[in-house]
């Protein structure tokens, strides 16, 4: 079946490559110089991973060439099993990251619910209790309604999440007894990480800074930028995207070292587009709330023999 592929010089091209069997796929890799030790097992690996997904892990093993990209042929001595091992390593890495990100999300729910709740149980539903300038920002980064300001965009997503959670017993209770209004310390339980981070961005400076200091951060904008990037990483992990050797989407800005806690001073010189930058931030945030957290050592011990970036 033909499909529209891309535009070259303003003209669309038809995708004409035919369907390939697993045997054909292995033959292509073999012809390009990738050694396959066990064809039967390689076929099983293709069935569980997929040729296209595996190509992201075979790509670094292809020979360099003049100009952009890499050649089709592989570096001599590289095996199919090398690529599979790299893919399996990425699976373990993704699971480890997701575990830490889930703990961070739960902790942030507590912090936002606790601090904002001081202003009233429904303070998240009253924009007057949030930052006036931030709530009125146009073209909010969270939400799809370009005509809505930041708070309206957040509230539309929040209301949709509450509807999605209507079958939960605790939501049913508040719908029946309290006219659907759910207090902030309960509402955070059905907020997504993205919705929660968006709400943090709308808090007053006082509330936002109190939470930031709980994490050992002296600037609310730094914490928000970190949480935003970690939310994207969380979504990538949850959707089984490749994590290894991938540049960070919307990397957080690199703050002046004076704003960084002692354990993160080195980030002033680190590459903020690579995974290590976010992993170091995640480790710090988890340890700030749970000093006995084993996540940093779990991440370090995941597999030290394979490069993380």
Report on the architecture of this protein:
The chain has 309 residues and is mainly α. It has a domain at 91-300. Helix content is 51%, strand content 6%. The protein has 13 helices and 4 strands. The protein has helices spanning 22-31, 39-49, 51-58, 80-117, 132-135, 150-164, 169-177, 184-187, 193-202, 205-214, 220-238, 275-289, 295-300; strands at 3-8, 11-15, 62-64, 70-74. It has a two-stranded antiparallel ribbon. Strands 3-4 form a two-stranded antiparallel ribbon. Helix 9 (193-202) packs antiparallel against helix 11. It is elongated, with a radius of gyration of 24 Å. The two termini are 37 Å apart. The mean pLDDT is 90.
Quick recap:
This protein is mostly helical and 309 residues long.
Q: Low-confidence runs (pLDDT<50, min 5 residues)?
A: none
Kindly provide the radius of gyration, computed on alpha-carbon positions and rounded to a whole number of angstroms: 24 Å
Percent helix: 40-55%
What's the overall geometry?
elongated
Percentage beta strand: 5-15%
Secondary structure: number of strands: 4
Would you list the SSEs in sequence order as H and E?
EEHHHEEHHHHHHHHHH
Average per-residue pLDDT, rounded, comes to: 90
Distance between the termini: 37 Å
Structural class: mainly alpha
Number of helical segments? 13
Strand order of the largest sheet: 1-2
Report on the biggest sheet: 2 strands, antiparallel
């Amino acid at each position: 079946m033909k499909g529209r592929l891309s535009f070259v010089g303003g003209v669309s091209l038809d995708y004409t490559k035919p369907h390939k069997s697993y045997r054909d796929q292995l033959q292509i890799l073999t012809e390009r110089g990738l050694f396959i030790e066990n064809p039967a097992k390689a076929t099983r690996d293709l069935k569980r991973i997929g040729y296209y997904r595996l190509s992201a892990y075979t790509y670094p093993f292809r020979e360099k060439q003049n100009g952009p990209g890499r050649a089709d042929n592989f570096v001599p001595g590289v095996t199919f099993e090398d690529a599979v091992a790299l893919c399996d390593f990425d699976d373990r890495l993704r699971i480890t990251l997701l575990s830490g990100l889930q703990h961070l999300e739960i902790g942030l729910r507590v912090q936002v619910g606790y601090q904002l709740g001081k202003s009233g149980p429904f303070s998240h539903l009253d924009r007057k209790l949030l930052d006036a300038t931030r709530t009125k920002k146009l073209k909010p980064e969270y939400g799809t309604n370009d005509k809505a300001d930041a708070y309206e965009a957040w509230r539309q997503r929040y209301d949709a999440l509450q509807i999605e959670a209507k079958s939960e017993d605790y939501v049913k209770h508040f719908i029946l007894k309290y006219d659907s209004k759910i207090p902030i310390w309960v509402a955070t339980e059905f907020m997504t990480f993205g919705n929660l981070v968006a709400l943090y961005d709308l808090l007053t400076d006082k509330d936002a800074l109190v939470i930031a200091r709980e994490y050992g951060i002296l600037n609310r904008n730094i914490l928000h930028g970190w949480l935003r990037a970690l939310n994207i990483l969380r979504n990538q992990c949850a959707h089984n995207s490749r994590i290894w050797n991938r540049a960070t989407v919307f990397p957080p800005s690199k703050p002046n070292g004076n704003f960084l806690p002692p354990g993160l001073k080195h980030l002033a010189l680190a590459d903020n587009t690579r995974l290590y930058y976010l992993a170091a931030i995640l480790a710090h945030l988890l340890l700030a709330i749970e000093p006995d957290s084993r996540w940093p050592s779990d991440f370090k011990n995941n597999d030290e023999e394979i490069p993380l970036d």
